[in-house]
Amino acid sequence: MADNADRPVIAIMRPEMYIRESVELARSMGFETITVPLVKITDMKDEFFDGFVERVLSGMTDYVIFTSANGIDHTLRKIPQESRKDFIDALNRTKVIAIGPTTQKALEKTGISVMGMPEVYSSEGIVDYLRDDVTGRTIDTARSFYGSKQLVEGLCSCGAVVNQTQVYTLAKPEGSEQDRLIDAALEGKIAAFAFTSSMMVHNFFEHARSRASEEQVVSALNKVIVAAIGGPTAQTLEGYGVKVSAIPDKFTFEEVLKVIKERLS
Predict the structure, then answer these.
(1) pLDDT (tens digit, 9 = 90+) per residue, 77-113?
(2) CA contacts within 13 A on the Cβ side of 168
(3) Fold of 42-170
């Protein structure tokens, strides 16, 4: 298994905006890093956004759910500066739910109070957290175009009226650095991979197919530690034939690093 002396090399493939803090965290935990973004975050506004804003401002929604820091960032940037305080004040009159601590911190940083957060930082965790109090309630969520269907379907099955607006989307970065990542994987230079979304997995394999056969790539991954941030990402990896060797109990990047470190020790 690849390593760099006593500092194993970990592949960090998160969007560009998260690279710096991810590298600092990984190095503080004893890793050397290879950083290549495999997911690009881009803004979008669908036809449901204005209705979402109107419901919040008029007090017609009971819960507002944010499943990422990007969700609140891309929501606020669509609202004119002079109207943002009114929108934030209106959000604070609803019950705002954050999927996890990173999202909670982002919300609180903008002045939005968080009513609650599930024990399990996932769509399923939110459904379990709210299931006893949402019958007949109106719920809004602003999130990624690729957000899990389990959130909306699960809350609807609990009797809630759920509205969603997609405020950003994910794309595949292109470039020579992605090729170098695949080559390093094939050459056994990486000890661990930290996959934090299904989109990241799909993009990894799309790039990999231009460098080698899928079988060669799967074989290379199955010789090292492959971590998935949660069940859906693990299932995507397993769908390609990759053995997932580490899944954290709490779905944050820091916890992903911790379980990788445990497996490497």
Answers:
(1) 999 999 999 999 999 999 999 999 999 999 999 999 9
(2) 21
(3) Rossmann fold (3.40.50)
Q: Do 9-39+173-264 and 42-170 have matching folds? A: yes
Q: pTM for the whole thing?
A: 0.81
User: Structural domain boundaries of the chain?
Assistant: 9-39+173-264, 42-170
Fold (CATH) for 9-39+173-264: Rossmann fold (3.40.50)
Host H or E run for residue 104:
helix 101-109
DSSP 199-262: HHHHHHHHHHTTTS-HHHHHHHHTTSEEEESSHHHHHHHHHTTPPP-B--SS-SHHHHHHHHHH
Q: pLDDT tens-digit profile of 217-241?
A: 999 999 999 999 988 899 999 999 9
